[in-house]
Amino acid sequence: MSGQDLRVGVIGVGMMGADHAERVVNRIAGATLVAVSDPDTARAQGLAARFPRVRSLDDPLALIADVDVDAVIIASPGFVHEEQLLACLEHDKFVLCEKPLTMDTESSLRVVEAELKGGRPLIQVGFMRRFDPEYAEMKRLLESGAYGRTLLLHNTHRNKSVPDPSFRSEMIVRDSLVHEVDVARFVFGEEIASIQVISPASTGAAQEGVVDPQVAVFHMAGGGVVTSEVFVNCQVGYEVRCEAVAERGTITVGRNSSGIYTTLAGDAAGQWGGPVAPDFRVRFARAYDLEVQAWADASRRGEVVGPTSWDGYAATAVCTAGMESLASGMPVQVELVDRETLQ
């Protein structure tokens, strides 16, 4: 396949999927968008009509099985990921799956086991922060040894608003905090041993009964500690920062600089000498481009780069424990299968 474009199908063309479709068409070398699918068939047809020679298929499983589709981007809701991932494995299709891998630990493990049974890796999980230039540089610097051992990690993850009335507290853990889970595993290079989710007083901007913001504390297997604030109705904009504290220094990514840093809801929302990003597509645009390009290049070579199905499974296991901690307020141990037994 290395001598021809990767023919890509996108499943789920809401905000993220439509963004990926446009990305494949306009910014990814060596890849061609050939098909899209979504339960909202009118939306899928409208997106397909924007681009030449792109088909809209009503059935996502038919898209996966289509002989004219080489690889698949899954941006559908998490509750259908297992079925769609297993179909990709059955048809030997490389797949970039947006988080979460699946909705629970058991189904994520089934996906990992099915991929291993198939004999070769096919799944990359969409933890795009690993491809963000600043996060990648943080990882490189920490691994250089110049900073000594990494001791602490502090994450901030803020979103302007979530107006969806069906949005619940657990979704902050499963759909938002999951990124900080992967960042912690990526930066430390080890698993999360336990998680505690703390519930401060909630903002009046949240839906009734929703705990927002939340603060999570991870204890890493090697003794490090990670704190993560997730605030999805902050009213300002999309802010994501990370500070690593090591024995001989600190590294911070995502911090805009102009002397004084202020945020204020309202007409002057999110000013730092420039605007705060309105959403994740702006804040991590470069990361998404690099992620999808790396996936397309690797798929053409017959390889997988970036976060694996195991990374997706481990993140789901941490978030499952996190939802238990959210309910109890107590630390919860993270239970993972012995990876060696899966080889």
Structure description:
- This protein has two domains: 6-128 and 287-308, NAD(P)-binding Rossmann-like Domain (Rossmann fold); 133-278 and 318-333, Dihydrodipicolinate Reductase, domain 2, CATH 3.30.360.10.
- Mean pLDDT is 93; it is low at 258-264.
- The chain has ten helices and 13 strands.
- Helix 1 (15-27) links the parallel strand 1 (6-11) and strand 2.
- It is globular, with a radius of gyration of 20 Å.
- The chain has helices at 15-27, 41-49, 60-65, 81-90, 105-118, 133-143, 169-188, 280-283, 285-301, 309-328; strands spanning 6-11, 31-37, 55-56, 71-74, 94-97, 123-125, 150-158, 192-198, 214-220, 225-231, 239-246, 249-253, 332-333.
- The strands form two sheets. A seven-stranded mixed sheet has the order 12-11-7-10-9-8-13, covered by helices on one side.
- It is 36% helix and 21% strand.
- With 343 residues, it is of the alpha/beta class.
Query: How many separate domains make up the residues?
Result: 2
Unreliable parts: 258-264
Range of strand content: 15-25%
Q: Averaged pLDDT, please?
A: 93
Shape: globular
CATH class of the largest domain: Alpha Beta
Which sequence of strands runs across the widest sheet? 12-11-7-10-9-8-13
Give a short account of the largest sheet: 7 strands, mixed
- Indicate the CATH topology of the largest domain: Dihydrodipicolinate Reductase, domain 2
- What is the CATH-assigned architecture of the largest domain? 2-Layer Sandwich
> In percent, how helical is the residue content?
25-40%
Structure summary:
The chain is of the alpha/beta class.
